[in-house]
């Protein structure tokens, strides 16, 4: 009994850390620009394929860089892809939420098709950044090292992001814009620059998450669908635009799924997450930590 409880605690913490990485970028973009970026999942896929290209000789024969370098490349690919999406498309249409919503979905579908053309529809395995696992026989716990690395990377990223948005002028301008765009403008904040930085940060986090999802599950042209749905559920429950809410909701969903799998089986993994989503929408439509939006 104690072993099962500890196993659930550990497994839930590992899964939830990856979920937090997936959701934070999604909520930041909505919080700052009011954009529901449906290409966020595709940016996760882009990061995974970026890692695959530079670390596996099966894709480009002369390229087989160390996994740590591949991790940096994945973050850069996600960040550059996200920046390009904002500067090349979203910046011109973001005043129309519906058009922006549909445009980002189209971009995601195009990227998925390009992935099929470039890498085929077959799932690919990524070079494991940290192979091996830890097994505690007494408690019956088995944790892979890649899960531990994902957990640490997630919290380091969250810590750096938290420091950036609360301790630096550039970061505080992102926070101010997410609370009131007009108020930020009146204090001299450069809105286009703030939005571009937000997209870069969100893309970098998506690229990082892509490596861990691609390693723990699989890398394929459809791998972006589940993370996108997951990000949407987490952000709605946590409160759209709230980083703190997204982190807490990620852990809520992570532990809920772990408990469900442990008690009912993997077939029910996402069932209770959807039930919680419906309850939150009915009872607290602003989410657990939704911002009190300022009318402009």
TrEMBL record:
Membrane topology value: Multi-pass membrane protein
InterPro entries: ABC_transp_permease, BCAA_transport_permease
Cellular component annotations (GO), alphabetically ordered: plasma membrane
Biological process according to GO: amino acid transport
Subcellular location: Cell membrane
Membrane-crossing residue ranges in chain numbering: 7-32, 38-55, 62-86, 98-122, 143-165, 196-216, 228-254, 266-284
GO molecular function: transmembrane transporter activity
Pfam families: BPD_transp_2
Signal peptide: none
Keywords, in A-Z order: Amino-acid transport, Cell membrane, Membrane, Transmembrane, Transmembrane helix, Transport
UniProt family annotation: Belongs to the binding-protein-dependent transport system permease family. LivHM subfamily.
Protein name as catalogued: Branched-chain amino acid ABC transporter permease
Source organism: Natrarchaeobaculum aegyptiacum
Upper classification of the organism: Archaea, Methanobacteriati, Methanobacteriota, Stenosarchaea group, Halobacteria
